[in-house]
Design goal:
The chain is mainly alpha-helical. The protein contains 22 helices and 2 strands. It starts with a strand and ends in an 11-residue tail after the last helix.
Length: 474
């Protein structure tokens, strides 16, 4: 085994690196148990000292070609642990060069923890400032003045970079590009506080862009929904649509009902809460299956769990099934014309879809998305088939229709429940009273669920992002 300067081996250095990785995980805000990780200034100082130690070692390694063999062996050891399925995917890109900026990496994890609590930020800035002041103790000048001069120089440097990218006509805002344009070494030259300020500016920029995106999203949602409501209240528009696209002898659903249905389901997909959940789901399921299944197993799903948490867990998993098709789903729903047949014809077409087993249909079936298949299998495993189907009635009808493939046994049981509701045979959930009142299912909650299934599984086979997944065969 190669030794560094005859004192430290690759194995010893790897132990230091593994310890630093554990620190980074805690710096992200949470313990492995899921509980919040609390940092005080003393522990933060120790973490930065650990990072500084790794920086010094890597700087020493890069100072001479004599250590090339050591670096190659170190790269191999790092590759071995980062390719392990249980290793945190956010850190899978670690390499020897990464630890040349270990403190910057640590500051990044500590600042971008969600949520960034006031006490955490206070302890972080206290620790970095005290460390920088301690570093200046060997000088004859006043430490506080030196520290302030350094921070003023940092502010001046940032302003110079920022001014080059800001229009005079626009108010000054924090630019992520401006922060990134300054090398990490430039920030590090202002001490640990400089690295912390760098990450704070990056976070401020991210929050600013997020607020702008949310504002734009709200405008889009309001525009689409108001447009649908206006059209739905326009009797002349209703007549125009029916006259234009209805085939002889065929009755279409009321345009006002259709508009309200589309507005409601688009509102769900465009809602800020849903956007956050689908972003989180996309991140969770981008990890190897071994990791995200372990996360859900630790939730200990059972009948005793809080129903709100249970439903949110289910919602996240369903959103994970459609996260890769998110844009196309919204776009297709936005452009969807009102040419749907009556509810009775819609449900009949869905039944016909399940009855068809011809060779031509098998040839048309699409390749299984392995990630979505894994999520669906875990849904059944975690919740149980019966419990899962009953919980689907408390989910958004459009989300259920988009996420559950028609070849899944979950879909078949869900459709069976819908059929029972149509006949007035209620199980644990009653969607509407139409059967008892001897009214047609037109604008009720049951009709909404049938309409969603028809859109995503009949109409959507060719137009809405390949909804027909062959996840389960008989």
């Amino acid at each position: 085994m190669v030794l560094l300067a005859g004192e430290i081996s690759v194995g010893d250095l790897m132990e230091l690196i593994k310890g630093f990785v554990d620190i980074l995980i805690l710096a992200s805000g949470y313990q492995s148990s899921g509980l919040v990780a609390h940092w005080d200034s003393s522990n933060i100082k120790n973490a930065f000292k650990w990072g500084l130690l790794l920086e010094n070692v890597l700087r020493h390694l890069n100072s001479s070609a004599d250590y090339q063999e050591f670096i190659v062996e170190l790269e191999g050891a790092l590759s071995e642990i980062t390719t392990n399925p249980t290793f945190p995917q956010a850190l899978s890109g670690l390499s020897p060069s990464t630890f040349a900026r270990a403190r910057a990496l640590l500051a990044e994890h500590m600042i971008h923890a969600l949520p960034l609590r006031d006490e955490h930020l206070k302890q972080l800035m206290m620790a970095t400032t005290e460390m920088d002041l301690d570093e200046l103790q060997g000088n004859s000048f006043d430490n506080v003045n030196l520290s302030l001069d350094s921070l003023m120089l940092l502010s001046s440097s940032f302003s110079t970079v920022h001014d080059q990218n800001t229009s005079i006509k626009e108010p000054a805002t924090v630019s992520s590009d401006s922060v990134e344009n300054m090398e990490i070494a430039s920030w590090a030259s202002h001490g640990n506080t400089g690295l912390a300020i760098r990450e704070l500016l990056k976070r401020q920029s991210a929050v600013s862009f997020l607020l702008r995106a949310e504002t734009g999203l709200a405008i889009v949602e309001t525009s689409v929904c108001c447009s649908d409501l206006a059209k739905g209240n326009d009797g002349f528009c209703q007549k125009q649509v029916n006259d234009a696209i209805a085939a002889p002898g065929e009755e279409l659903i009321d345009y006002g009902i259709w508009s309200l249905w589309r507005s409601k389901n688009l509102s769900y997909f465009l809602d800020k809460r849903t956007i956050r959940l689908v972003s989180g789901a996309s991140l969770i399921f981008s990890a190897p299956k071994e990791q995200w299944t372990q996360v859900f197993k630790q939730l200990n799903i059972s009948s005793e769990i809080n129903e709100v948490d249970l439903l949110e867990t289910l919602e996240i998993m369903l959103l994970g099934c459609i996260s890769s098709r998110w844009d196309s789903i919204i776009q297709s729903l936005s452009l969807l014309p009102n040419d749907l047949p009556t509810i009775s014809k819609q449900i009949q077409e869905i039944y016909n879809l399940l009855r068809r087993r011809s060779q031509s249909l098998l040839l048309e079936q699409e390749t299984v998305n392995s990630k979505e298949k894994d999520i669906l299998m875990c849904l059944v495993e975690f919740f149980g088939l019966g419990t899962l189907v009953s919980l689907l009635w408390k989910m958004s009808p459009a989300l259920v229709a988009a996420a559950i493939p028609s070849r899944s046994p979950v879909f078949r049981l869900y459709l069976t429940d819908i059929g029972n509701q149509l006949k007035g045979e209620y199980t644990t959930i009653r969607c509407c009273n139409c059967a008892e009142d001897k009214r047609d299912h037109i604008g009720c909650a049951l009709a909404e669920r049938i309409r969603c299934l028809h859109i995503f599984h009949i109409r959507g086979r060719n137009s809405i992002s390949s909804m027909e997944l062959v996840a389960f065969d008989h």
